[in-house]
Amino acid sequence: MPNNFALGNEKPWSRRQLLKLGLAGAGVIGAAGLWQMLNLQSKSIVKVPPLDMEAPDDGTNPMKMLRDFDYGTVKQENGRTIREFQLTAGTSIIKLNSAVSYNIWDLNGRIPGPTLRAKQGDRVRVLFLNKAGHSHSLHFHGVHPAEMDGVRPISNGKATIYEFDAEPYGVHLYHCHIEPVTRHIAKGLYGMFIIDPPTPRPPADEIVLVMAGYDVNDDGHNDYYAFNGSPHHYMDHPIPIYQDQLIRLYVLNIIEYDPVVTFHLHANFFDVYRYGMSMTPSEKADVITMGMAERHILEFAFRYPGKYMFHPHQDAIAENGCMGQFEVVAQSKSQKTVNNS
Amino acid sequence: MRKIRYICLTAAAAAIVTLSSCSSTPTAENPSAPVISPQATEAVSENSHSGHAGKEKININSAILSELDKFEAKLGVPALSNKIQAGRPYGSPEDLVTKKVITQEQFDQIKDQVGVQEVVLTGEAKDVDYMSKLGLMKGHLLVAQELLDQNQPKQAEPHIGHPVEEIYVDVEEQLNERKVKEFKTTLVSLQDLVKSNSKDSKVKTNFASSMQSVDGAIAALPAEQRSKPGFVLQVINELLDSANSEYGAAIADGKITAPIEYQDSRGFVVYANDLYKGISSQVAQADPEAHKAIDSSFAELIKVWPAAIPPAKAVKTPNDVTKLVKTIEENSQKVVDKSNTKA
Ligand SMILES: [Cu+2]
Fold first, then answer.
1. 0.90 exceeded by the pTM?
2. Closest Cα in chain B to A119
3. What is the ipTM of this complex?
């Protein structure tokens, strides 16, 4: 089922497909614009159920983070597309459960930081401001010159600019690289960095899941775990998805202290695009092993309505917060939902 | 806890609209968003030429307040330095205009001196930066010492580590220039020792030599400069700024939940207070009112950290601490400005 896409995987866009999307008349839009429009058009035929977003008053808003992509501010400079992102490190407090509050370092007021998204070949410019006390930095995965590697400490109150070309395409990440890196990451300074391929991936309901751990007493062991910052949130608030809709999960494991976790999806198998660096899946699985900082694209669709869990199969980790579920909504119900608006 | 509830309706054709309306950051996903920015283009060409322009630029992303004062003085805009600092980060000098910090006309007057690229600090700014970083190291070590004295090696350990992990690399080059012997090895071996065997008698002697190294590095600055209020106050404010952020990161629900950050901020404030004592009589003479404000704020501030081991309940809220730090900063600025015009 996941392979029954409306549009082929690696085929370039034909004039007919463009016509179908009503784009051929657009004429003079640049390559970057075209890519964005195609992305938009792709999304428009993707069905996403309505979300009831309950936002706690802190750096977490897991429902919103699921499908929130930061495409930056686009500028044209000397004929190049520059995507400018702003990331400010700050400090905030989140609630891990009804009894435990925890001080984190956040990026733009959230944990994990914004999911940055560029297209291969774009020039990426990241304005980083540190307002979080300790020295911090941003280190991006990907290919770039040494001086842009983000290991030099940026002291409190200071800003710096990281600038490099977005390459290669794939699911990457960024994080603070100041020692002890374990602590600087575990306290929240990380996020996903997606570089889209030159030819957009097929339409899908795209969802970000970042697995992380919390060591609340600084003893080098995690006490809580979470998807997208908030322990157990998606267990209590299942993620609605539509039956038969292609789901594209961008999954990142940024759990410190535990060397490895898996990602397991109930009642289904997913196509694996390792590191998101290919347009063809390498395997099908229902459990995938992920070391620290590993990340993949997982694609699947659910045949039957109902609730299905996902979690690392290190069950203690799941039980301590890294657990959630999808609520597959029947296609027939989708019409009704539209009418709600 | 306040709960914000909002429904995000997303379905079929509505998908695009909803996706963007759900996102708080303005994204460029909208096809109409790409804008040709002639200003930005200019910035790039300008930057690429800055190497041989020979003009000294001030990096508005990282300059300290007194450096930014040059713009404030030239344009005659009150508190402009603070406004520039508050508007960080800047992607290009022109962002000063797009972020509405100054007008285009004002920008035209200073644009030759504005930069966003890393610049090599010179003169007093370089010395302030150097001493501030060593001051942070000193603060870390002061609190580490207290914790070692109280037989808390586990708690002391991160404060021995932080000087190397977060700061040392930033002063490393300067140590050579200023003919200061490297002391990274000393700090690292002390950390190794405290980690592996805190009972070792060598801890005491290693600690003493680490502290001496930092003091020695500070003493590389001329004694005259280190007693100049305009200079020392800048260092003090850099320390307090970090202390303020760290204190905010230590407290949740009125309790100190992150002892490391509490202790960091304690060390910085204790050392900043020491530094102030060294210049207070001069400040009192130069500007009695500023001195009064700074002195009483320090007296209030120091009470926030009654001991190296955090109290059960926070003495003051992060907000109150911020206010005190701001008061000191504002009053210091008056003294710094005066000493700049004198020089
Ligand atoms: Cu960090």
1. no
2. B29
3. 0.76
